[in-house]
Amino acid sequence: EMESTFAMIKPDGVSGNYTRDIKKIISDSGFGIIEEVMVQLDEDTVKNFYAEHSSRSFFPRLVQYMTSGPVLIMVLDKANAVADWRVLIGPTDAETAKVTHPHSIRAMCGLNLQRNCVHGSDSPQSAVREIAFFFKKSSSGFYSKHD
Ligand code: CMP
Is position 106 annotated in a ligand binding site? Predict the structure, then answer.
């Protein structure tokens, strides 16, 4: 049955003009883009969104990167959306992706372990949390908390 996942084109993907290509891949792969909003994230939002990484040494750099420009946040719908979106984006490290998953989105537009162009929820539980973090549900669907 239908499943929703949370996807984001990160600042390097947006500034690198990959948005159109990524959205075409999403549609061609059978996902519905049921919500999409361009937002500039602030530090507090990034720190809360990535709270599970807050003790990691890369966290300050992650916050700097994720606030460096606008991102496109999306809700994608499809059967098995969470796992299938993770397959489509490829490994976290874009340098690895270029070698092991050359047709993945991160191979196409990512740079390295940090600047990896796109995000995808890592589990159905994460998807529920991440969608609720950015979008509110209304009777007619979702609306963004950020526009
Ligand atoms: P994402 O899948 O969005 O989840 C957390 C993000 O933190 C990840 O993509 C990368 O952008 C970044 N990240 C994860 N691990 C590292 C690392 N070891 N060094 C730098 N950045 C990282």
Answer: yes
